[in-house]
Amino acid sequence: MKSIFLALALIATGVHAAEEADDNPCDKVENEVQTLECSTYSRTTAEDLLKANYQSLTERMQTLYGKNPAQLTDITAKLKAAQQQWLKTRDADCAVEAFPATTGSKAFTIAQNDCVARMSDERSEFLESIGQE
């Protein structure tokens, strides 16, 4: 079972690493320790992008609805609630996805990191699409 998770993690981190242009720990993944480092890097990078895209979205809403304080307050509250709920759902889904591995093990951490990175990247794209003209 552990080798299956390692193989899946290597594939997932390799795909995510291919999207990165900079030198990073995902460039040459050859063992479990490097896979863990890559998954951690991918998760951090994806979560940073998610935060930046959420901030950019709130700035777009300010531009779009800044002249109408009631609408701005309403959309801002809805975005905040949706993002908080999405984060809870993402974390719960990733715990399920990583479940067969023992909590705290490298395989579990890698699977969870890869799931969080993948889902955060997907959410980032969605956030980028809102309010675009």
What's this, in brief?
With 133 residues, the chain is mainly α. It has helices spanning 2-19, 32-65, 69-97, 106-129. The longest helix is centred in the middle third of the chain and has 34 residues, at 32-65.
Question: In the CATH hierarchy, what is the class?
Answer: Mainly Alpha
Low-confidence stretches: 1-11
The dominant shape is: elongated
Give the structural class: mainly alpha
N- and C-termini, Cα separation? 47 Å
**Using DSSP, what is the number of strands?**
0
Helix content: over 70%
Computed CA radius of gyration, to the nearest angstrom: 17 Å
The biggest sheet, with number of strands, parallel, antiparallel or mixed sense and barrel status, is: none
Count the domains.
Answer: 1
DSSP summary: helix tally:
4
Strand content: under 5%
Average pLDDT figure: 86
Task: Give the CATH architecture.
Answer: Up-down Bundle
List the helices and strands and how they pair.
Blueprint: H1 2-19, H2 32-65, H3 69-97, H4 106-129
Helix pairs in contact: 1-2, 1-4, 2-3, 2-4, 3-4
Q: Can you walk me through this structure?
A:
- With 133 residues, the chain is an all-alpha fold.
- 79% of the residues lie in helices and 0% in strands.
- The protein is elongated, with a radius of gyration of 17 Å.
- The chain contains 4 helices and no strands.
